């Protein structure tokens, strides 16, 4: 059978590719952002956010703090990379969110599994319409500087799909990337390749959630159910493989909601699945929607124990925009 031996959760924010001194780029982006979603699902511009909340994070958003936070995050990623290498997985299953990369608005499944032989990365055209400060070197951190090709895990992926269907989980499948110039894999998967798998080139099994784009975002309860069903489907496979499951993305952004993030992490650590499955849809908008990847992970690794976690609340502006950087491992 395929056995899940390791779980990892990691943020994949652009600031994890930048030097701390460069985080100011994202602070400027935040101030121009007109789609800042509050925890109750309302959408505000930065000026509207300041009018409503004021600027309570003046000290916490001092750019002088960014280099230290960047070093802390880098050490956390080093720790996760070492844990992953030490676990010696045969296959790495990555739960990620596709953001108009492999799937477009003309075809947006709620939940999909890639069953193809080869994972092809999307080359990001420049200049980027929103991240105007990015260049090819930046996108290389996501493997999106060219159509990189990596091995998939088609046999186990097909077994998992069959097992999911048997459990009543209707799953979409994709088995190829026919035109990488148009549609290909994006940042959630490229970040894992480039940052955590540098010394571990093993096949990847991509799971793609539509976390971002309404109306067919899975609920928190459904995400947990899917994760549990994935674990059962893998265990039922005749393929003998050690599997590491990685949730790529999160936690709260583009508003840093520290209390929410810590509640999610603690719930996964404590196997408090009631809390995880009751998170409302309106709390999972925009970037914070990637929390769904962690909830799905929680369903898959209920038999594992948390061995490491690190949380870094990053406030990029006095109004509290930023991200909750989170890193954790279960074994």
Layout of strands and helices, then pairs:
Elements: E1 2-10, H1 24-32, E2 36-37, E3 43-44, H2 46-53, H3 66-87, E4 91-97, E5 111-114, E6 118-120, H4 136-140, E7 149-151, H5 154-166, E8 172-174, H6 187-196, E9 204-209, H7 220-236, E10 241-248, E11 253-255, H8 258-269, H9 273-277, H10 291-300, E12 306-315, E13 321-330
Parallel strand pairs: 1-10, 4-9, 4-10, 5-8
Antiparallel strand pairs: 1-13, 2-3, 5-9, 6-7, 11-13, 12-13
Helix pairs in contact: 5-7, 7-10
3D structure, described in words:
The chain has one domain (2-330): Protocatechuate 4,5-dioxygenase, Chain B (3-Layer(aba) Sandwich). The protein is built from ten helices and 13 strands. 34% of the residues lie in helices and 21% in strands. The chain is globular, with a radius of gyration of 19 Å. The longest helix has 22 residues, at 66-87. A hairpin with a 5-residue loop joins β12 and β13 (321-330). The strands form three sheets. Strands 1, 4, 5, 8, 9, 10, 11, 12 and 13 form a nine-stranded mixed sheet that branches. The mean pLDDT is 97. It is of the alpha/beta class and 331 residues long.
């Amino acid at each position: 059978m395929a056995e899940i031996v390791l779980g990892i959760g990691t943020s994949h924010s652009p600031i994890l590719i930048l030097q701390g001194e460069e985080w100011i780029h994202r602070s400027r982006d935040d101030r121009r952002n007109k789609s800042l979603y509050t925890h109750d699902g309302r959408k505000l511009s930065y000026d509207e956010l300041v009018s409503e909340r004021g600027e309570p994070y003046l000290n916490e958003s001092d750019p002088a703090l960014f280099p230290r936070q960047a070093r802390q995050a880098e050490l956390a990623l080093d720790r996760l990379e070492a844990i992953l290498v030490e676990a010696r997985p045969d296959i790495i299953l990555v739960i990620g969110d596709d953001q108009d990369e492999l799937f477009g608005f003309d075809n947006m499944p709620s939940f999909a599994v890639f069953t193809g032989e080869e994972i092809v990365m999307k080359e990001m055209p420049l200049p980027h319409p929103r991240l105007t400060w990015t260049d090819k070197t930046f996108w290389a951190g996501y493997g999106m500087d060219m159509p990189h090709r990596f091995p998939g895990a088609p046999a186990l992926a097909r077994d998992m799909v069959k097992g999911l269907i048997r459990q009543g989980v209707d799953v979409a499948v994709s088995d190829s990337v026919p035109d990488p110039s148009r549609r290909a894999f994006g940042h959630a998967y490229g970040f894992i390749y480039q940052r955590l798998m540098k010394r571990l080139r093993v096949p990847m099994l991509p799971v793609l959630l539509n976390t971002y784009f309404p109306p067919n975002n899975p609920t928190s309860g459904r995400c947990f159910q899917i994760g549990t069903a994935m674990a059962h489907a893998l265990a039922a496979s005749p393929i003998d493989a050690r599997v590491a499951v990685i949730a790529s993305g999160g936690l709260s952004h583009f508003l840093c909601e520290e209390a929410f993030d810590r509640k999610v992490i603690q719930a996964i650590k404590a196997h408090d699945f009631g809390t995880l499955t009751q998170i409302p849809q309106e709390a999972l908008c925009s970037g914070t929607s990637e929390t769904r990847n962690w909830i799905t992970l929680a369903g898959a690794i209920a038999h594992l124990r948390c061995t490491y976690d690190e949380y870094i609340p990053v406030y990029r502006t006095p109004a509290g925009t930023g991200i909750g950087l989170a890193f954790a491992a279960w074994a």
